[in-house]
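Lay summary. Proteins are chains of building blocks that fold into shapes, and those shapes determine what they do. In this project we predict the shape from the chain. Here is one chain we studied, written as its sequence of building blocks.
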Amino acid sequence: MSFKKFFTEAEVQKRIVVFGGRFQPFHKGHKATYDGLVAKFGKDSVYIAPTLAPKKGSESDPKTDPFTSDEKVEIITTLYPDIPKDKIVVVSNPYNAKELVEKKPDSLPLIFAVGAEDLLKRVPKETDRSKILKDADINKPLKPKSEVTYFYGLPKITSATALRKDITDTKGNKDKLKKAFTKWYGEYNPEIAKMFSDKMVAESQIEEDKDMPDFLLMEGGAYGHLAHFHDVRTNTFADLKEFIDTVLQGKMEYARIKTDGMNLMFSFIDGHLRAARNQGDLKGFGKNSLTLDTLNKKFEGRDNIQNAFTAAARDL
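And here is the predicted shape, written in a compact code that computers can read:
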């Protein structure tokens, strides 16, 4: 049975079909559901209604609500450009969608597309004011929203909770992030994927080696013990500029140099340079760390090693 049995094409489009949800974030399962609604009701009738989320800069729970309302819309329109932006309306409650519905004529039929579970839990019992719309009745004339609110049951959609877990589990690793993102969207979008990682992966979870190249630089390398900046093939000129600017501004968070098989770490305590050679020097937040004088004495008689370490300390 086709639409044209009862309506002209223009008349079919005069319906309001609201597909609402938290959409944290909107993914391929939601898109498949949207496409199914479009096939049944026509593209001009179907609206996506993401629920209102904290504004940018406001507090939100990154585990359950990582994205703001604007970011939700950006994700949908960027990853699915075939969805018209004017068909995406942010609402405070997806079960009445006042922000959308109140702007539409009372003469139009109103249909809320909700999951099967919500159809049982949240939708009021069928009365003269609320009806459950079945597939067999989709093409029949429907009463206007001023008289009846229709509810249409959707097949089960995979929860975005699983998506958020997949992104969190990448721990910022670029290869894992690309694989997880592609699993949920089919194609990789680096800008949106980075947004996902920034929002869902806590700083404490980020793997320390996420930016390391996919090869092993053995001791001795191209230029001896020290791995030079240009030995890392993934570094760009922009990275080099940022590195130099950071060092010259004194904003380098952590640096290490290896000479003669020895590590020496520097920091500042109460404005004075301190050095650490091993775990014992690091205990108590550097309580027993080396001063310039004790550093010099520690390597006394070691000639070039003593000169290298003390000279570096003096420079710092």
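What the prediction tells us: The two ends are 81 Å apart (CA to CA).
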